[in-house]
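Researcher: Let's do a round of design. I'm pasting the structure tokens now; please hold your answer until I've finished.
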């Protein structure tokens, strides 16, 4: 698209000034901001930012949850030709140091006192950062800080400046070109420092429009913006496509009210990583376990029917008169109330991405009438590479290339992508840019996969993570750790898994249980426990997880390519993997190498065949304190199947 974000805002404000643009829930009441008022707000901020010295090309930190005034601030920054750099609001202060210094950030716009405190904590390490604007004033009255300004004050001063210079904003908007840099997103940094991914207005809006056209999105859509704005997936769905289509973006009151807000908004267009869909389903199943016997029986009957005919029905295939009638009854008795309880009664299109989603989980949502689909993309590709058509949503693929995308598979199995949505480059990192962008414009995704006979893309794992078993009965067999981990996470009792096996004679796995799901399971069996560590090491819990592991092994045994990746030994970790402890990225991706070093004694114990191993681990608490957690962990063997045993 040959336009810019501020220019699209200007068009919406001119053509449909009174229509809702953003909503925010505050003190339990939804507040609406229309396009005309949003444009005025952006203009007021732009006036003050320019007065305070913000210049074209400056990088501006944006940290916080989804809030209308933070979205307005990003637009104001882009209006001046500066570049917003969103970072994760739940990151610890030290994680901001590298991005701020790398991008030479002078200005920051943050949500509240928590973010102000973090930036003040590191200000001595970030000499370029001299001015901080904040949205929520609670706790910041008479705060002793130089260069600290509330957005309330910014808007008041901006209103006065706008009266004196009525043409200023339009003049600034007209200076911008589609190929100017629009934003910079830092990667999750699974191996070392994060890299700043530079995107232009053209690259972001081209992919936003491609996705919108694919699913026929209009200005009538309703979206709930509840994921971190620093994640490019959220940024595309609730910022780029929002301005491209002009639909309404709703900002929840807090992270704790998202489930309630989801029901109140009733979004028509919904996006969530598999972890969110897993969490919603886990809560449903927990409640059903506590329901009366007649309700459980009815639920089971209609869900069995839904699993049999629901996916075919949503794909437009005939299911027969009897099934149609019974599905209709099930819709009244179970599916409709269930969709409403999930907050998805109005969802027309739902997407999941970021990690593979389990086939059972995927089928569950589609079976009850939710048009859940998968997409494929990354920060570097501005998200939209492959999408699933409405009648071709398969659990084992990530869709077909969308408009403007070319895909080819390299000799080593790596997926290569070419599109107008590719990154301009990594900021101040030409070496890394050259590694992923070829001279003829192909982006190396580092994902291994292939195009199947239906024209859909299948992803196996990261190229760098695909390895080989060395020694033992499966010597030379392919090992795909993420594939194994995702199959384990398909079970509601398993929240996270980390698999090892490359260069070794067998596959071993460390597992995190889902505390809510396993806790409810234990309570229904009158099994007492005194917290996560205690519950994780219960013999009954190990037996539960063993059953999950052996089901995965049974499935893997019939896969000719990955049968050698069956799990020989496993343990349940004594603590949950945490981004604050460096074990996960801020997008909840496993940092496998870091975990291998941190828990080297456990990895060694698994491969040496030990029955138990003591471990003491340093942890960081939410209030910033440090401590440790220790336990003697049990290590268990799992049955490995041959093809003959599986067939029998």
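Researcher: That's everything. Go ahead.
Model: Designed sequence:
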């Amino acid at each position: 698209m040959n336009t810019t974000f501020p220019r699209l805002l200007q068009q919406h404000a001119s053509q449909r000034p009174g229509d809702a643009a953003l909503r925010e829930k505050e003190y339990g009441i939804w507040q609406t901001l229309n396009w005309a008022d949003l444009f005025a707000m952006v203009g007021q901020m732009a006036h003050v930012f320019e007065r305070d010295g913000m210049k074209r090309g400056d990088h501006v930190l944006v940290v916080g949850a989804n809030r209308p005034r933070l979205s307005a601030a990003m637009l104001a920054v882009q209006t001046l030709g500066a570049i917003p750099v969103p970072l994760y609001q739940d990151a610890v202060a030290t994680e901001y140091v590298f991005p701020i210094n790398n991008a030479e950030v002078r200005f920051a716009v943050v949500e509240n006192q928590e973010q102000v405190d973090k930036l003040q904590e590191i200000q001595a390490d970030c000499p370029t950062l001299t001015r901080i604007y904040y949205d929520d004033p609670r706790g910041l009255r008479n705060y002793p800080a130089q260069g600290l300004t509330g957005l309330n004050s910014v808007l008041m001063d901006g209103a006065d400046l706008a009266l004196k210079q009525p043409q200023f904003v339009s003049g600034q908007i007209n200076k911008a070109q589609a190929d100017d840099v629009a934003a910079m997103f830092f990667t999750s940094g699974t191996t070392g420092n994060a890299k700043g991914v530079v995107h232009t207005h053209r690259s972001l809006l081209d992919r936003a429009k491609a996705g919108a056209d694919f699913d026929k999105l209009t200005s009538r859509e309703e979206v709930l913006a509840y994921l971190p704005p620093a994640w490019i997936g959220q940024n595309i769905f609730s910022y780029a496509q929002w301005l491209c289509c002009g639909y309404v973006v709703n900002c929840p009151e807090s992270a704790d009210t998202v489930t309630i807000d989801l029901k109140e908004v009733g979004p028509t267009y919904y996006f969530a990583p598999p972890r969110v869909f897993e969490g919603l389903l886990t809560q449903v199943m927990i409640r059903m376990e506590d329901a009366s016997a007649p309700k459980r029986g009815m639920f089971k009957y209609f869900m069995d029917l839904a699993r049999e005919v629901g996916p075919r029905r949503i794909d437009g295939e005939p299911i027969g008169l009897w099934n149609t009638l019974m599905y209709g009854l099930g819709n009244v008795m179970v599916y409709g109330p269930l969709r409403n309880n999930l907050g998805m009664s109005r969802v027309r299109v739902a997407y999941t991405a970021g990690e593979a989603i389990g086939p059972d989980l995927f089928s569950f949502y589609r079976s009850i009438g939710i048009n859940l689909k998968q997409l494929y993309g990354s920060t570097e590709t501005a998200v939209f590479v492959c999408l699933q058509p409405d009648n071709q949503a398969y659990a084992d693929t990530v869709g077909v290339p969308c408009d403007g995308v070319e895909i080819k598979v390299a000799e080593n199995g790596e997926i290569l992508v070419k599109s107008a949505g590719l990154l301009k480059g990594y900021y101040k990192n030409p070496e890394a840019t050259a590694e992923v962008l070829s001279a003829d414009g192909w982006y190396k995704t580092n994902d291994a996969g292939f195009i199947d006979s239906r024209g859909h893309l299948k992803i196996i794992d990261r190229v760098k993570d695909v390895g080989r078993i060395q020694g033992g009965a499966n010597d030379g067999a392919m090992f795909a750790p993420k594939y194994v981990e995702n199959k384990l996470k398909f079970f509601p009792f398993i929240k996270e898994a980390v698999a090892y096996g490359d260069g070794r004679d067998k596959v071993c796995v460390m597992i995190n249980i889902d505390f809510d799901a396993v806790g409810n399971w234990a309570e229904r069996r009158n099994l007492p426990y005194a917290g996560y560590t205690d519950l994780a090491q219960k013999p009954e819990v190990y037996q539960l997880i063993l059953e999950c592991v052996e089901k995965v092994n049974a499935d893997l045994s019939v896969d000719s390519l990955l049968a050698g990746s069956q799990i020989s030994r496993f343990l349940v970790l004594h603590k949950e993997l945490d981004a604050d402890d460096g074990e996960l990225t801020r997008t909840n991706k496993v940092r496998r190498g870091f975990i291998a070093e941190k828990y080297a004694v456990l990895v060694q114990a698994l491969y040496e065949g030990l029955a138990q191993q003591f471990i003491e681990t340093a942890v960081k608490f939410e209030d910033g304190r440090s401590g440790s957690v220790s336990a003697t962990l049990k290590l268990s063997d799992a049955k490995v199947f041959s093809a003959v045993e599986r067939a029998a």
